[in-house]
Each structure stands twice: as C-alpha cells, then as structure tokens.
TrEMBL record:
UniProt feature, compositional bias: Polar residues: 99-112
Signal peptide positions (record): none
Name of the molecule in the record: Uncharacterized protein
Disordered: annotated span: 96-118
Organism of derivation: Aplanochytrium stocchinoi
Length: 202
C-alpha cells in the first residue's frame, strides 16, 4: 500500500540506465519481464497519473512503444490493494447528498449575485490560505475573454492539483531523507561503540 509511488520511479531509473547496453536490451528476458509488469501496472484503473507518466517517459527513453509491450498477467493472482487512502491511486470521494431544492435555489441566487470574475469567491478552504490572491490570469487569453466566469474555477483547480500531489511528494521526501540519514549514520559511526552518540547524531 503506497509503495508504487517509490518503486515505479526507482525501477524506471534503473531500466533507463540500461539503455545502450547490449546485454540489457529490451529483448533480454529479465528486462522484458519488468517492462511487461510495468505495462500491466499502467493499465490499472485509477492509477496515479504521475506513475503512468514515469512509465511513458521510460518507454520513450528506451525507444519502444508502450502499446507494443504485452502486459503481464501477474497482478490478478495477488490480493487487490485497498484503494481508500492509497496514495498510488486516484479514488474519488463519495458525492454528498444534494440539498433540498429550496436551499439549492437560494445558494444559486447568491452565487449568481457575485461578480463572475471575482477570484476570492472560492467555495472551499484551500491548502494555501488566500490562494486566489497569488494567481494572476493573463487577460489576453481568448478562453477567459469568452468565458470570464472560468476565472473563479482556476484557484479551485490549482488547489485540487496541490492536494493530489502533496501527500505522495511529502511521503517520498520523508522516505528518501530517512534512508539517506540511516546510510550516513551506519557509514560514519560503523565503529562507534557508544550507542548514545549514534542516537544523538541521528
């Protein structure tokens, strides 16, 4: 659970380093098996887009087409992971119940009373406080000239993008920092008999 966010980029970098090596070409059974597994992962429903992007970039760097790789058939033999709260997958939250018609019409009237281009009218709290104040939209863009009301949607889209990427990025950064610290400690204090000094250095 949550391992693909680290394993897929790691495997992609290892395979990319084998580019140009005759022994480790795409026809190598070991390399072919890994590519087939990545192709099967790519076809998983609701897989995070950044993981799919890693696989696409790998295939491009290796000079092969993803569609030409036959996906393996290994994952169906394993237990399906829990998707709820899993950073490897995009799982949409359940849609809340619709309010009554009277209250809905009242909210719609209040929303229509606001200026279409008001960037401060964001329906929910954002990750970054007052996010709309930091967003500047080029007024020369034809899309926003034709539909000025879309300007209110931009902060919401940016906020959702931040929410989607922030958890795996933080988890990955913490994992890398912990592993790096552990390797440095075991290297620099390999002959240190005092456990307290090692703990203090960590």
């Amino acid at each position: 659970r949550g391992w693909l966010i680290d394993v897929v980029p790691f495997a992609a970098k290892i395979l990319e380093a084998a580019k140009g090596v005759t022994v480790f070409s795409s026809s190598n059974p070991w390399i072919r098996g890994l590519l087939m597994t990545l192709a099967e992962l790519y076809n998983l429903p609701d897989l995070k887009l950044n993981l799919k992007f890693e696989i696409e970039v790998l295939c491009k760097n290796l000079g092969i087409e993803l569609k030409d790789i036959e996906p393996s058939k290994l994952l169906h033999k394993r237990q399906k992971p829990r998707l709820d709260g899993n950073p490897d997958f995009n799982v949409k939250a359940p849609v809340a119940a619709q309010p009554q018609a009277s209250s809905h019409s009242g909210m719609q009237q209040q929303a229509s009373a606001k200026a279409p281009g008001d960037l401060n009218s964001i329906p929910a709290e954002t990750v970054i406080p007052n996010l709309a104040a930091y967003i500047q939209i080029n007024k020369s863009l034809q899309l926003f000239q034709q539909q000025p009301a879309l300007a209110r949607v931009v902060p919401v889209a940016v906020d959702r993008a931040i929410r989607e990427i922030i958890q795996p990025v933080v988890e990955r950064s913490v994992t890398i920092a912990c592993n790096t610290s552990r390797e440095l400690l075991t290297k620099d204090f390999a002959m240190e008999p005092d456990e307290k000094r090692v703990l203090k250095a960590s």
